[in-house]
Design brief:
heterodimer; A: 365 residues; mainly alpha; B: mainly alpha; Four Helix Bundle (Hemerythrin (Met), subunit A)
Amino acid sequence: MTQWIGAAQDMLQGWFGPVWGTHAWSLAKSLAGIVAVLVPLLLTVLYYQLVERWVIGWIQVRKGPNRVGWKGVMQPIADAIKLLMKERIVPTGASKGLFFLAPIIAVAPALGVWAVVPFAPGWVIADVDAGLLVVLALSSMGVYGIIIAGWASNSKYAFLGAMRSAAQVVAYEIAMGFALVGAIMAGQSLNLTEIVMRQDGRYGFLEWFWLPLLPFFVVYFIAGLAETNRHPFDVAEGESELVAGFHVEYSGMTFAVFFLAEYANMILVSTVASLLFLGGWLSPFPAAWGLLGAPGIGWLAVKIAFFMFLFLWVRASFPRYRYDQIMRLGWKVFIPVTLVWIAVTGVMMLEPLASTAPFSIWFGK
Amino acid sequence: MTIQLAAFYVCAVVLIGAALRVITTRNAVHAALWLVLAFFTAACLWLLLYAEFLAAALVMVYVGAVMVLFLFVVMMLDINFDKLREGIWRHLPLAGGIGALMALEMALVLGSREFGVDGPRSPGAPPAGHSNTKELGRLLYTDYVFPFELAAVILLVAIVAAIALTLRRRKETRYQDPAEQLAATKANRLKIVKDAPAREAPATPEGGGE
């Protein structure tokens, strides 16, 4: 593997000369990395949507899609073709440029964030020192897609959805940021790889940060639900009162792009939660257990799948929150909880405690 | 010309263009969106100076939070733009004077010895393993700890003042106390009354039903 990579590098340098060859090599390497991350991601998005319909069908004791292909596995392909064929409609009086810019702005950060997400030690497109900050910064850009879509549509329903989404995302971003501050404190780094490696140790899953940072873990996942406008916080779409919220005027592929962004963001929240609180690619079993104890991307996939299932389970189980209660939960419950637990984490990391029995597992390294 | 220099010029042109559009565009929402682009491009320029923490913080704070609230307000405004432009010639002398003063101040700062073109330059590529965030944190919490804490206290006072000025309990608004709602039980909400039937229930036919 490394020989081939070296050979490819030499080949490019032979073609373009020593200066441009280096640039061409880094370009080719980045492009290969992007393809290697985005192709599985987009396939996951495609089939996540089918699995969502199956899981919700199973929870509601009915059959999900089961007609197209074997047991319905071709359903997402059929849906994609249908959306591609549909006409794109621009409402009268819409701000046309912004109307088409909105889905692009929604999807670009949702895909761009994956550049700094590691899948195993060294398996990352850009190993940025402040990786977690980049994740937070870029995922906070996604809300512009929703706001611009709501405003540019020239529709009251879309506009109300955009307003709700803006207020909600800003409220929950603070709690989410504080939850990440806890993970940064415990991991003593902003780099995602280093935070994961700090959860490595003899005790397997007890070493992971979910245990000392349990409030952050819970707050992060619930804030993630709110940030991605998923059930039970999906008042930005709110079918019963706003028809479809911010994307009510979008049809065909422009709608599909919003859909893609939402699901990519759900997978991102699942991945970041797995990396920060569930030890990423580390094995839940002690290292002495041979193959079961070895770290690997398979463990990360299992953890991400668990959170992705949780998204669907929550959607099928809970009624939608009332809007003022969403705000209350964000501002009056989550932010105080995270603030208190940041102080508690600080105390746990102080010296007399950090090296005594239970705390030394996480903070004594 | 290195790729970094090319990236700098592209970002600089985009930044100046976006900043100009902020004040020349007629639509307030468009102006706010151009400002978002200006902030984002400024973050890209900081990245070129290897200040990755500052760049990410700028995007997170200004683009991700402040401008979202700005847009929130601006979108709900119903402004008559013709009326806004009415007094432009009357206010021009004053506005022009202030503008000239600001330009002069900027020229003074940029032209002085400390900030001139011979002053600080990009520190160059940091050595491997160098953490911009760690360096910044060390400076903020050692050398500059008092100014930093002072700034934090001023911000806190501003938050408290802003809330104190705008918070008012409106009498006509009805509030719900979630704790009270959660404490409600069957015993204090529901009363079962035993009542004798007014007439005999009709006999249902065998094997019938609804």
